[in-house]
What we know:
It is a single chain. It is built from nine helices and no strands. The longest helix has 24 residues, at 171-194. The protein is mostly helical. It has helices spanning 3-16, 24-41, 47-56, 73-87, 92-103, 115-126, 130-139, 150-163, 171-194. It folds into two domains: 1-113, Cyclin A, domain 1; 128-201, Methane Monooxygenase Hydroxylase, Chain G, domain 1. Helix 3 crosses helix 6, helix 4 (73-87) packs antiparallel against helix 5 (92-103) and helix 8 runs antiparallel to helix 9.
Amino acid sequence: MDQSTAHSVEEIIARVGTHPVWGYSHCLRVYELAKDLARDEGLEYNGEVLYLAALLHDIGLYRAYNLREAADHAERSASVAGRILRDADHPAPATRLVVEAIRAHQPGSRPAPSAESTLLNDAICLDYLGSIGMGRILAMVGSEEDVPDLRTAVSHAEGLRRSLPGTLNLEASRYLAEERVLETDSFIETLRHSTNNLKLL
Length: 201
């Protein structure tokens, strides 16, 4: 791995990726999860490409980068990531793989034809499920227009719980999703019980 490029990119994301849902911690979590999936599947991958794609996949959502470029955040992130890597004189073939993976990272998108893209796509889906997924969704309340309150957040979590497992590409991802769906269901069931079916939220 080109340590200088990776270090520079990590410094950028650590500085600007402060959002509790899309920030630096999410990026690192996705990278670690993607590596675990690759190990469980026996997949070979380029560690540098996967790391850079994981770090940069949401950069288009950060305030410093979200005012220009494409309206779609995956396209915007891909554009910004490509520019950052080209400015760092990163090798063109690796830059192309990073950009392709970022462009196809959103849940439900068809991954680009690389192991890194498939791993990134599945890891991002999984980060919306289970305890960590519930934490992320609750952190959206008041900061995302489509999640104005706690009831909406619960409804959003239930929708993701239904839709995301069917979009996963790898057997290891689907296995892990089963565990995380049970975590999600348990959390929501307890919350509903404690709030008179959300009436007291």
